[in-house]
Amino acid sequence: MRDLPPPAPDFGAAVHTPPQAPFLTQIAHRRSASAQALQAPGPSGEALEAILRLAARAPDHGKLFPWRFILLEGEAKARFAARLAALADGQADPDKARQALRKLTAPPLAVVVISRVETGKIPEWEQVLSAGSVCTLMLLAAQGMGYGANWITDWYSYDAGATALLGLAANERVAGFVYMGTASEAPLERVRPDVASLTTRWSDL
Q1: Cβ atoms within 10 A of the Cβ of 204, count?
Q2: Beta-bridge partners for 14
Q3: In order of start, what are the domains of the chain with their CATH numbers?
Q4: What is the distance between the alpha carbons of residues 171 and 119, in angstroms, rounded to a whole number?
Q5: Alpha carbons 160 and 138: distance in angstroms, whole number
Q6: What is the pLDDT of residue 72?
Q7: Is 120 left (phi over 0), alpha (psi -120 to 50) or beta?
Q8: Taking the complete model, does pTM exceed 0.85, yes or no?
Q9: Half-sphere exposure of residue 71, counting CA atoms within 13 Å on the CB side?
Q10: Measured between alpha carbons, how far is 60 from 160 in angstroms, rounded to an integer?
Q11: Mean pLDDT of the 167-172 span
């Protein structure tokens, strides 16, 4: 019999997943850390290179690599956040928009995953899904190496001025900001879906 993953943590329990935990345990206990609770150190050097390399193993129909990465860290990230703050006044709720930037300023590292769609025989939807898979694998890779991580999109993922700061081309969109660092507190288990209620077996009878 093949090994089965452990049960999910109880709701509200602190989720501690040791970096050396088995692969299925890593998945069974996957939990996003609060972006504002992420602090230094974050992955850098060979650790960061490894996380990006593992994320790039995402399914990719046609071998198009329909995504790329933009790294935000240190003073460059601070300057980027300051320029976003200037754009916050143009949002529907400027105060809320400025508060959302705390998710960007707290973690030591942000990896912006850019989805880029190429015209051709591979459907656009499949290319977009590949970029989402990259984000998921990045979360797992970071967790497996002992870092906290959170995949977030917020107003600055969609605002035209913000995406211009990132230098996005016409065929590109932000798939997500993946924040990484060392979690100052263990995340608590959240509500999970009742998978049985979401699962059916097809029958033509």
Answers
A1: 3
A2: 188
A3: 52-184 (3.40.109.10)
A4: 9
A5: 26
A6: 98
A7: left
A8: yes
A9: 13
A10: 27
A11: 97
Q: Which carries the bigger pLDDT value, residue 205 or residue 202?
A: 202
* Tokens 């995402």, residue located: 58
Six-digit token string for 202: 């097809």
Angstrom distances, CA of residue 44 to CA of 11, 101, 148, 173, 176: 33, 22, 14, 25, 19
Q: How many angstroms from the chain centroid is the CA of residue 120?
A: 27
Whether 38 contacts 179, CB under 8 Å: yes
CB atoms within 10 A of CB 203: 5
Q: Is residue 168 pLDDT above 70, yes or no?
A: yes
Note the residue count of the chain: 205
Structure tokens at 52: 């990006």
Tally of CA atoms within 13 A in the half-sphere of 119 that contains its CB = 2
Q: Can you read off the two tokens belonging to residue 27?
A: 């998945």
* Secondary structure string (H, E, C) spanning the chain: CCCCCCCCCCCCCECCCCCCCCHHHHHHCCCCCCHHHEECCCCCHHHHHHHHHHHCCCCCCCCCCCEEEEEEEHHHHHHHHHHHHHHHCCCCCHHHHHHHCHHHHCCCEEEEEEEECCCCCCCHHHHHHHHHHHHHHHHHHHHHCCCEEEEECCHHHHCHHHHHHHCCCCCEEEEEEEEEEEECCCCECCCCCCHHHHCCCCCCC
